[in-house]
Amino acid sequence: MELAHEDKTGRQAFYEKLDGVHTAPLWAVMSQLVTPEPRSRCVPHKWDYAGMRALLMEAGGLITAKEAERRVLVLENPGIRGLSQVTQSLYAGLQLILPGEVAPSHRHAAAALRLIIEGSGYTAVNGERIPMAPGDFILTPSWMFHDHGNLSDDPVVWLDGLDVPIVNLFDASFAEGYPGGDVQHVDRLAGDARARYGANMVPLEYEPDSKSSPVFHYPYARVREALLQIESAGMCDASHGFKLQYANPVTGGYPMPTMAAYMQLLPAGFCGQPYRSTDATVYCAREGKGTTFVGNERIEWSVGDVFVVPSWATTSHQVGERSVLFSFSDRAAQKALGVWREERLND
Ligand code: GTQ
Question: Assuming Cys at both sites, which of 206, 270, 273, 295 could form a disulfide with 202, CB separation 3.0 to 4.6 Å?
Fold first, then answer.
């Protein structure tokens, strides 16, 4: 019904009265607030590894890892610049440690995950030094001290994923430096956590004391072997190829309470069916090369490239040669809150 001019003026005066007492009429904002489906400001985007690597090396000549605390180039979604967010809920960055450098030990409420792109360094978590090799997936759970180093002769570069925007949504951020210097005290042998929790066994009468996986290191060699064996058995998923999710071996659930992570093998010639889900996803190509269609966009990727798919954007992958994609998202948080949805679409 057409509003009378008087009514509009009357309403405007009323809205101003509301505004003065920090109040707003729901009916004026309802359609943007409670949308019939996700309307993300995030857009699909790819960060080309060759270009990012050159910028990282330039950063390496300008600032040390120690001075920077973390020498990271933050991947900002072009739709939400200035917020250090790759999606509404996630942070992503590319971190460089040069030979001999140390990124000093600290801890924070935000949880981190890492996918090693090139080189070999180490990260120390929970008193254990964990080696980093290309393709390895590494966890730094909430509030655990962690420092990174590089004892090799070559740079080490990895993708960081953190749940910082979720922690900040709750205004629950805390952070502090390690009280005993740059490097945390190491009091466990390398491989200790994997021996205790990662051999399909757990310590006698073990009761978890953390919401995160007690295994911090998921070496790529094992994941790759598993994917290749699964590929040889057949039964390829029409949208995802052969896809495994990283698990907390104690619960079978996601490795951390907020973030899920995956590695998927797309067999040679794969032409995936379109799919969408409410968890915006950050991908990093691990092997091969291919094309991912996201809505009307076409993303060509090869090893090391990072790309982001917004929530509920229709996605399909195509490859010529056998390829492997790593990815992570906030699916763990969404499923814990009961809001996650997915949909398979057909061409
Ligand atoms: O390695 O601890 O990309 O604290 C951002 C914040 C990495 C880290 C990031 C961090 C870290």
Answer: 206
Q: In what order do the strands lie in the sheet with 146-149?
A: 128-132, 121-125, 146-149, 102-108, 175-177
CA distance 55 to 40: 29
pLDDT at 4 over 80: no
CA of 104 to the centre of ligand 1 (A): 11
**Please, what CATH class does the domain formed by 45-344 belong to?**
mainly beta
Residue found under tokens 């992958």:
317
State the Cα–Cα distance between residues 110 and 90, nearest whole angstrom: 10
Residue 321 and residue 61: Cα distance in Å, rounded? 36
Task: Write out the H or E segment, with its range, that includes residue 187.
Answer: none
162 lines ligand 1 (CB under 6 A): yes
Spell out the domain ranges in the chain.
1-34, 45-344
What pLDDT was estimated at residue 8?
82
Tokens of 344: 């398979």
Amino acid symbol at 2: E
Q: Tell me the residue type at 292.
A: T
Sheet holding 156-162, edge to edge: 72-74, 91-97, 156-162, 112-118, 137-140, 217-218
Residue for token digits 């999710």? 245
Number of H helices, E strands in the chain: 8, 22
Q: What is the pLDDT of residue 223?
A: 98
Is the CB of residue 146 below 6 angstroms from any atom belonging to ligand 1?
Answer: yes
Output the residue whose Cα is nearest ligand 1's atom 1.
70
Say how far apart CA 28 and CA 72 lie, in whole Å.
41
Is there an atom of ligand 1 within 6 Å of 45 CB? no
Instruction: Give pLDDT tens digits for 124-147.
Output: 999 999 999 999 999 999 999 999
Q: What is the pLDDT of residue 346?
A: 81
96-112 average pLDDT score: 98
The predicted pLDDT at position 2 comes to 55
Nearest CA to ligand 1 atom 11: 70
In this prediction, residue 5 carries a pLDDT of: 58
CB 148 within 8 A of CB 178: no
